[in-house]
Amino acid sequence: MKEITANEFDQEVLKGEKVVVDFYSTECPPCEALFPKYEAVAELYGHKIKFLKIYRQGNRELATQLGVSSSPTLLFFENGKQILDTISGGIKKSEITARLNQMLTENEIAEIQKKQQRSVSEYDVAILGGGPAGLTAGIYLGQAKVKTVLIDPALPGGYMGITHQVSNYPGFVEAQNGYMLAHYMSEQAKQTGIDFKVAVDITSVDLVKKEIVIDELETIKAKKIIIATGTSPNTMNAPGEKEYKGKGISYCATCDAKYFVDKEVTVIGGGNSAVEEALFISKFASKITMIHQFDALTANKTAIEQLQANEKITVRYEHEPRKFEKRGEKMVTTIENLRTKEMSELASDGVFVFIGFKANLAFLNTNAIPALDNWGYIQTDEDRKTSISDVYAIGDIVSKKYRQITTAVADGTIAAITISKELN
Ligand SMILES: Cc1cc2nc3c(=O)[nH]c(=O)nc-3n(C[C@H](O)[C@H](O)[C@H](O)COP(=O)(O)OP(=O)(O)OC[C@H]3O[C@@H](n4cnc5c(N)ncnc54)[C@H](O)[C@@H]3O)c2cc1C
Fold first, then answer.
1. Distance CA 52, CA 101 (A)
2. pLDDT tens digits, residue range 245-290?
3. In angstroms, what is the span from residue 398 Cα to ligand 1's centroid?
4. Which residue in 201, 206, 256, 390 is the catalytic one?
5. Which of 54, 241, 265, 301 could form a disulfide linkage to 285, CB 3.0–4.6 angstroms apart?
6. Which among 325, 312, 333 is positioned nearest to 257, based on CA atoms?
7. Which is catalytic among the residues 10, 255, 295, 383?
8. Which phi and psi angles does 136 have, rounded to 5°?
9. pLDDT tens, position by position, 389-416
């Protein structure tokens, strides 16, 4: 893979060929995650398209000129002009090949697809999910010299990676930025020597055969599988919700609150996460209206007291959203008063939804799903074994009362020690 500098850019990139350029940085986990995928596609497409790398920090002026503000970022060029969308962050192989295929003819694509080879690798343990539960299992298994692979469609860290401040993880006097906590946990897991396959597409998972296919062509066989895939936020299925998801409706305050400086925001929900996230959003927004279905908030007492003392936040109790629309720049939420059945409209600059979570299980082959509780969470025994032989479940996906980073890492520990002993 050829590495170039800004001085060589015109010669190497703008002279008419088809070119991909990876702007990378050092000490950049998503850049490390991209590197093997970039090499693999370069091997396949390299006779038709030129693949280059540029060190972003060493070539800042060029990066800024090209609008590259994060690493890694892939840019695509043809006939001296930039083409297609850029991609950055946790880049999947499928996102790269989708763009490369747009640069080729149908015959060229067919020829490349013929060359693609299936690969099979074997492990003692495959961990699905790189949140705190999966990373902790990885640390213990790696230290016990158990051959382990950790697989995640995103970058490691799970919810921890997008939590603004974590103040209750033992061992830190000051509240920790969740992103850094995720980074430390992930580096600690990597140092034990386990393999990471992150930002991949999960093609299929067969818990009975213990086979996981990623990126369509790579089969991972394991003696044991740990499910640590966590949860996803619930949606309301109200008209307009799907349409405006990410375009006015958000499920992540850490990700999006910063875009609402001095703006008005609607928050849906009244439990712990809604109250805590409304408090966080109030650092940016000028006014927050919470919509809550019950006549009292269901968060913990301290959070409720903080919310009540916050002049920016008001709560409309016993109301539920019925419809979301965009009118000009405003999001208009139609809300129903559950007592009087009266409908009214509430306009704001953005809507945040925090109405609980559901277990991430949709990826499983429906013939083999472990026993679940009434809410769709996986039932386990005290060693975190599920109803399927040699399949374990840990973290938020498990049927339990309290879902926290500490309870997730505890589950990871228990499953990993159990497995290490069984494999000995
Ligand atoms: C907004 C917010 C704030 C929070 N604040 C705190 C706090 O301050 N303190 C605290 O202790 N707890 C907090 N929590 C709870 C805590 O983050 C969770 O309990 C914890 O992250 C659960 O860890 P996990 O590893 O089980 O799941 P997650 O953190 O959800 O990680 C699951 C991982 O699985 C991956 N995954 C999903 N589908 C698949 C698949 N098909 N195959 C493979 N991988 C998959 C995901 O990409 C993700 O990386 C907070 C939660 C939220 C939502």
1. 17
2. 878 899 888 778 888 999 999 999 999 889 999 999 999 999 999 9
3. 12
4. 256
5. 265
6. 312
7. 255
8. -65, -45
9. 999 999 999 999 888 999 999 999 999 9
Amino acid at 74: L
What type of residue sits at position 52? L
pLDDT for 393:
98
Q: What is the largest CA-CA distance in the chain?
A: 71
* Secondary element (H or E) of residue 40: helix 29-45
31 catalytic residue (yes or no)? no
Check if the beta carbon of residue 331 is closer than 8 Å to that of residue 285: no
Does residue 361's CB lie within 6 angstroms of at least one atom of ligand 1?
no
Per DSSP, the three-state class of 254 is helix
Q: Looking at the DSSP assignment, which residues form a beta bridge with residue 212?
A: 205, 220
**Positive or negative torsion for Cα 177, 179, 184, 185:** positive
| b/e per residue 75-91 (b: at least 16 CB within 10 A) | bbbeeeeeebeebbebb
Domains of the chain: 2-115 (3.40.30.10), 119-232+357-423 (3.50.50.60), 249-353 (3.50.50.60)
Ligand 1 touching residue 250 (CB < 6 A):
no
Confirm or reject: Cβ of 395 under 6 Å from ligand 1.
yes
Q: Is 411 a catalytic residue?
A: no
